[in-house]
Amino acid sequence: MPRRTPRTAPDGLRTSRRLPGFLKTASICVLVAGLLTPLTRTAVAATGATAPNDYCGGRCSDILPPGENGNATLAQILLNQAFGTQPAHAEDQLGPYAGLATGYKTLTDATVNTFFNDASFGVPADQVASTEKPAGRGDVTIVRDKKTGVPHITGTTRYGTEFGAGYAAAEDRLWLMDVFRHVGRGQLTGFAGGAPANQGLEQQFYRNAPYTEADLQAQIDNATAHNGARGQQALADVKAYLDGINAYIDASDSGRYFPGEYVLTGHKDSITNAGTIDHFKLTDLVALASVIGSLFGSGGGGEVDNALSLLAAQARYGVEEGTRVWESFRERDDPEAVLTVHNGESFPYGAKPADPQGAALPDAGSVTAEPLVYDRTGSAATASAARTSATAAGTGLGSARRGMSNALVVSGKHTASGHPIAVFGPQTGYFAPQLLLLQEIQGPGISARGASFAGLSMYVELGRGQDYAWSATTSGQDIIDTYAVELCQDDYHYLLRGTCTAMEKVEQKNAWKPTVADGTAAGSYTMRVWRTAYGPVAYRATVGGKKVAYATLRSSYLHEADSIIGFQMLNDPDYVKGPQDFQSAAQHINYTFNWFYADSAHTAYYNSGDNPVRAAGVDADFPVWARPAYEWRGWDPAGNTADYTPASAHPNSVDQDYYISWNNKQAKDYAAAPWGEGSVHRGNLLEDRVKKLVAAGGVTRAGLTGAMADAGLADLRAEDVLPRLLKVVTSAPVTDPAAAAAVNKLQAWVTAGARRAETSAGSKTYADADAIRVLDAWWPLLVKAEFEPGLGTGLYTALTRNLPVDEAPSAGHGPTGSHAGSAFQYGWWSYVDKDIRAVLGEPVRGPLARTYCGDGSLAACRDLLTGTLKQAAALTAAQVYPGDDQCAAGDQWCADSIVQRTLGGIKHGRIGWQNRPTYQQVVEFASHR
Length: 929
Hints:
Layout lengths: L18 H7 L2 H8 L13 E2 L9 E4 L10 H10 L10 H10 L13 E2 L3 E2 L4 E5 L7 E6 L5 E5 L2 H27 L3 H5 L3 H13 L4 H13 L2 H28 L5 H4 L17 H15 L6 H15 L1 H12 L15 E4 L18 E2 L3 E6 L4 H15 L8 E5 L10 E5 L5 E2 L3 E8 L2 E8 L8 E3 L3 E7 L5 E9 L1 E7 L2 E4 L1 E9 L10 E10 L2 E9 L2 E9 L9 H7 L8 H8 L6 E7 L3 E5 L16 E2 L26 E3 L3 E4 L6 E3 L12 H14 L4 H11 L4 H5 L1 H8 L7 H16 L16 H23 L1 H10 L26 H11 L18 H16 L3 H4 L11 H5 L4 E2 L17 E4 L6
Parallel strand pairs: 7-14, 8-30, 13-31, 18-27
Antiparallel strand pairs: 1-4, 2-3, 2-32, 5-6, 6-7, 9-23, 10-22, 11-12, 11-29, 12-32, 14-15, 15-16, 16-17, 17-25, 18-19, 18-24, 19-20, 21-22, 22-23, 23-24, 25-26, 26-28
């Protein structure tokens, strides 16, 4: 039976506020009767396969909510909207995923797969749900298992294997793939509707990757030409993959079992079948890759915001002292930061130069953001649309890369079996259908199972091979720089190495009208980007009275397709035979990721990305002049290539006792691109637990999974900062009854483990609920009261633009807003920790330049904290959790809950909060080839 997905109401993309009303006027029975008929796929006799090339011994597991099936016909969507029924395999991984939050404390190795899928190769004969030969081909078979419906693709030819991968991807994610090829081209609103969230999504990505069709094709040509036989093989693989996608489009169109969203958005007629679903082409996949690379694999940026907060600090304190204060908050290389490579090895990169050169700081008050949207009409001209554009601009231009992944890897020296164990995966948000899909691919030169981004699943991108597994977390090191281009002639010409050169105008005109799926009133606008050789223009300003444009250049700009070679290598069992081969493959990936590896004997780590070699004296934290002396070394503006730091200079390691990563600092002297990598980071939640397990020895799959799950329920503020805050508050008797009651609740919560955990499975009520409410209310109040008086309002506000004060689970943050799961990545917890320790007289390495709480007086700090605590305790749950389109005011559990945000027509229920990867593996290989 063809396949479909889930739905709720997304912040990232809306497909249907009008469906309920539509259902009242449509004849559901007639539609269902007419549309259920064509829902069978061509199948052959069911056969099973178990793989002799699987060395995991039944100890590889994975999970990817809500479910594998991400396509739904119109009939299935209507039934879901009307009665809540789910297509097969649309959400059968959601329950086990959610259940780990209350089940991990009693977890054993034998019960791991209660909450995960068996990720062994092949499908036992009695577990085969369907077997098909896509498009009648004899060289590839797609087997789907009964439990999850995951496709197991086996080909006898390379072409057939990749054809099958494309066909299976379209079966599971065709609508989503179509959505994101339009996002990548800046054409989402014209395709899916003009909802403000759709406007924001296309604007966010178009600003960073305003590519023309020629740009997309050039990436394909470049990746093919510069990678020899592997480049040619990649091109052949992608073409076969596209043939598979397009074969499914044709079959589903003629069979009338294509995703129902095409009808609801006006692309197909449900009665006559008029309309088309456009075939995919090579450049569509590059557009898709540009979205994924921009969202998850491009670190750095934010240089203009850095300059503004530095100028605010200097205005407050003078140049020398202001710079010292700013640097202390910046925490580029904090000595107390948790590290992934923790053996003391140094990997210098991005440090502050002793004698900075070429800085182009803006004149005070001169910075304006470059407009992106012009010629607004209709619903695009509303205040709501303008706010959406402002939010998209802030997301696209900042240095924060949110909500992206964790890893726990332990060497066999410390496990019960003597084999390494890994629990790892990416945090890619929660969507319906999910951005990732699960698959197994077996064919000539390919042998892997795992997750891939929909539309890019010609290879497994995160998963397991025959006797090894790999995964990644977003690293975020700085591969983005901002250049001040000097203007000449007018505002749209600039100096390029002494020659007055015209900026290139790139435009995308979009228009939309109401549909059943999106009732947003008709509207239109034009997105316009001015491109220079130094990248797209992001801001205008003056420097020393001279007009400049600030252009933002990243090393992966115009090179999103290059990483395909690394993924091809990771899928090749003849290439990856050990940790060094794994590291070599990861070196071919130009996205900024931390890569982790485990086989039966070894573990390994490598930090990928094209790290540009900067000119001596250039401070990567600030804008610099666009002049040859300050350009990346070896930079060629024609293709945006440069000299990059060698692989040995990237943080890397083999067989360290353990590795943890939760988007924290990679290694000593490897400068942090994001703000907030200081003494308290969510990586500490993993570090503390894994270090304790390793010290005890005998680590098991269940034990390491439990450590991850426990960290995923922890409130970072409560576990690592609150004890010292209470130490200050209780440094004298707390005589106020309200304050004393709040202290008692908070202390009891800390003693109980500082978790945001339900009283029991399904209760939808937190244990220590009142303490959690108090801290959620107290944190923003105490931070403001602690720091704003000393910093002054101007500098305090500027620093909060660099780093938000809080990122609690209920807060609206990150690319998907609230209900996104990922939390505690960015916030002022390190600042509070260092400042409070200074007030208490405790040692602080890398202290803030000044002491802020009570101006360093313990008594004054105590009064400040006690006063704000009383204020917080008096706030009701309805005030702390004001409610939204998902939750009633005051519903604490719901405010934290995770929503599978709809990118299609199927919706799902909420699940309890967990701070963990979306796709996750638990692996322990028993043997090796």
